[in-house]
Structure prediction request, 141 residues.
Amino acid sequence: MSAPRFKRALKVLEKWPLDPTKSKPRDIGALLRTRIETEFRHGEESEIRDPDVCDRMLNSLENLCNNKYQKLYESKLVYGSLGFNREISYYSTSDVMLSALRTERNPSVIKRFLGKFSRKQQHDKLLEAPKTEIEKKPDNS
Prediction:
């Protein structure tokens, strides 16, 4: 039966919060709630079309909720791939930033966003290509 799967799904939903900075279609917590509500319409008595797929999905969601991969691959870096810390990255994906980009559609929005969180010099360094010095080897010929 699907009773154990339904209970596992409810535990995932308990651990996965809704994101207040994102609208419902952009929030993965809201998407999970909708999807689980659809799949388990009749609660514990629901019939699962493909139990193996359901188990794999629930295992993956449980691993994400328990931060398995974050603990397994710990990193001491505090900046992401673009050089922004977690707070800036979080803000850049919020609805506030998305609406600002939609309404103004010009590069000054991004410049203001970058200037809001840190010094301009740091961002200029991020936009520049890395400079490498090529050492000239003496010819022995």
